[in-house]
From TrEMBL:
Domain of life (superkingdom): Bacteria
GO biological process: regulation of DNA-templated transcription
A Pfam family annotated for this UniProt entry: RHH_3
The protein, known as: Ribbon-helix-helix domain-containing protein
InterPro entries attached to this UniProt entry: Arc_rbn_hlx_hlx, Predicted_DNA_bind_prot_RHH
Domain Predicted DNA-binding protein ribbon-helix-helix: 4-40
């Protein structure tokens, strides 16, 4: 594990200390958990943005519709057996 040193504004450090005390966890573990959650949040936001962008792409929508039509045909053929 690598060591990282940083500065925090006084008010944020006070909040961190209080939260760590209330949760009975070391400040570094609280920072680690918070950063991990935040980075996961950023990744989810990136996925959402890419899906929203894809939803506006007419070529992509056409391919998806064609794929769904093909899938529906396969399901219907399978149920007809």
């Amino acid at each position: 594990m690598a060591t990282f040193t940083s500065s925090l504004p006084d008010d944020l450090l006070k909040k961190l200390s209080a939260a760590a005390k209330n949760l009975s966890v070391p400040k570094n573990k609280l920072i680690e958990q918070a950063l991990s959650l935040y980075l996961d949040h950023l990744k989810r936001a990136e996925y959402i943005k890419s899906f929203q962008k894809a939803s506006q792409d007419q070529d992509l929508l056409s391919m998806a519709e064609e794929g769904m039509a093909s899938y529906l045909k396969q399901v219907e053929d399978h149920e007809a057996r």
